[in-house]
Design brief:
The protein is of the alpha+beta class and 331 residues long. The protein folds into three domains: 7-47, Pemi-like Protein 1, Chain: D, CATH 2.10.260; 56-125, Translation Initiation Factor IF3, CATH 3.30.110; 132-330, Phosphate transport system protein phou homolog 2, domain 2 (Methane Monooxygenase Hydroxylase, Chain G, domain 1). 62% of the residues lie in helices and 11% in strands. The protein contains eleven helices and eight strands. The strands form three sheets. It has a four-stranded mixed beta sheet, covered by helices on one side. Helix 4 (134-158) packs antiparallel against helix 8 (239-264), helix 7 packs antiparallel against helix 11 (297-330) and helix 8 (239-264) runs antiparallel to helix 9. It starts with 6 loop residues before the first strand and ends with a helix.
Length: 331
């Protein structure tokens, strides 16, 4: 960090000199335009014409002998905002590792295999973060989670297990959207222009939304678990269990919808309503648990996992409501 003293011209205009090294590093020269704006109490200067360097990362196969770890490395490079990943090896890349590379690419939105050779694979990300608004993505992701939960609930009450299987597959697809949102958030942390383009007003709001994206990711995970376990149930359950599970599920769906709404609308009153409903979920959970322990062991085990997943979704909805309250008081 360098300190500069503010000067004034004869006409009263404030001026400040810029460090030569910083100007040259940004590729600026005399006559170039810069934009000046306030950001969380700071005066920020940025080039008027964005020059965003392409971020490239080389991944050596020898550093990730486990194919699963290689897949995770590629996913996390994508989330971290890298544009190009070069996977290289001193010898031909094994079939299991090639499969992991392709699996990772298929699980990421806007990525393509640019080059594919025996000892080198290049992945390139083509996603432009400026084409998205983060709150729109949050609303879309929340809608997908609610649809998965709702269809799973219908499957429980009607016995249509194919519907639960379809809901689970949609949940797998939603993982790509989650990773895209995390990538955009990380890019926005480093680049104020990205933050402006995705319509996030301040760094504080961005941090709150990163937390919210993580919590929605957990909601998606447990929604998928509900769908997966529902597909394992028998065709018919006792009416009292169906009725109580349906009631619990409806409360959780309402909590999820209102928690995201309270965040996007910055509505602490609505967030408080979500938090208050957690007591109802706990009560339903206890009642259902007392009923299912009298059922056959396998059925009781599966139902127990389902209602625990519903309760977990409710817990993360409360966490989202907390985020909404934090957002409202940080403005």
């Amino acid at each position: 960090m360098e300190i500069r003293r503010i000067q004034t011209t004869a006409g009263g205009t404030y001026i400040v000199t810029l460090p030569r090294s910083a100007v040259e590093q940004l590729g600026l020269s005399k006559g170039d335009m810069v934009s000046v704006h306030m950001d969380d109490g700071k005066l920020v200067l940025t080039p008027a014409v964005a020059r965003t360097p392409r971020q490239t990362k080389i991944v050596r196969i020898e550093d990730f002998p486990d194919p699963k770890m290689l897949e995770l490395a590629i996913v996390n490079l994508y989330i971290g905002g890298h544009d190009v990943a070069e996977i290289v090896s001193d010898r031909p890349i094994g079939l299991s590792q090639k499969k992991s590379i392709r699996t990772a690419a298929e699980g990421l939105m806007g990525i393509e295999i640019l080059e594919d050779y025996s000892s080198r694979v290049v992945l390139q990300t083509l996603v432009d973060p400026s084409k998205f608004e983060l709150d729109d993505l949050l609303a879309k992701f929340s809608s997908i989670c609610r649809a998965i939960l709702n269809d799973s609930l219908i499957s429980i009450t009607t016995g249509d297990r194919a519907l639960a299987s379809d809901a689970y597959e949609r949940g797998v697809e939603s993982t790509r959207l989650y990773r895209l949102m995390m990538r955009i958030c990380f890019q926005a942390l480093r680049n104020i222009r990205v933050r402006e383009s995705i319509k996030v007003g301040s760094l504080t709001s961005l941090v709150v939304r990163i937390i919210a994206v993580r919590e929605l990711g957990r909601i998606a995970y447990y929604s998928m678990r509900v769908a997966e376990r529902t597909g394992e149930l028998g065709s018919k359950l006792p009416d009292e269990i169906l009725s109580s599970t349906s009631a619990m599920g409806e409360i959780v769906l309402d909590m999820l919808e209102k928690s995201v709404q309270s965040l996007l609308e910055c509505n602490p009153s609505l967030a408080s309503q979500v938090i208050d409903r957690m007591a109802e979920v706990r009560e339903h959970y206890s009642n259902i648990f007392r009923m299912i322990i009298r059922r056959p062991e396998k059925e009781a085990y599966t139902l127990g996992l389902i209602i625990r997943a519903f309760r977990s979704v409710a817990g993360y909805a409360v966490a989202l409501a907390d985020d909404a309250i934090l957002e409202s008081f940080s403005r």
